[in-house]
Amino acid sequence: MRLAETFGENVRRVRLQHGLTQEALAVDVGLAVTYVGQIERGLRNPTLDVVERFAEALKTEPLILLQKATSRES
Amino acid sequence: MRLAETFGENVRRVRLQHGLTQEALAVDVGLAVTYVGQIERGLRNPTLDVVERFAEALKTEPLILLQKATSRES
């Protein structure tokens, strides 16, 4: 799985944990809701600055959003 | 420090550990040597796909190249 796909899955998981909609997250990161949806489906190739904006909006660390599910649970 | 700057420092550190020149690394990642130099100086904002290409060329994990120095030593 590409790192961008792992990132998308983690963004979705943390967003839902916070009870945020894609629209609310899009406002927080200052990006279009369509872009947020594509990020979550792993269809985008975000830059490190964008990764940091998502981490900040989701009140977490960038590396948390880049970790594979297995390495998160161990 | 921006994540892109942390990434640049780690690329440089691991490259030197492998005794690689910027030119050799540039060939391995298929990018211009000037770009590699700018990455190492934190002057670029690479995408996650580029981060993966550097990790592969440096025979390490992407997250290793994205960790802050302090969290690496603990």
From TrEMBL, chains A, B:
SMART domains from the UniProt entry: HTH_XRE (SM00530)
Positions of transmembrane segments: none
Entry keyword annotation includes Lyase: no
HTH cro/C1-type domain boundaries: 11-65
Keyword vocabulary terms for this entry: DNA-binding
Superkingdom of this protein's organism: Bacteria
Protein name according to UniProt: Helix-turn-helix domain-containing protein
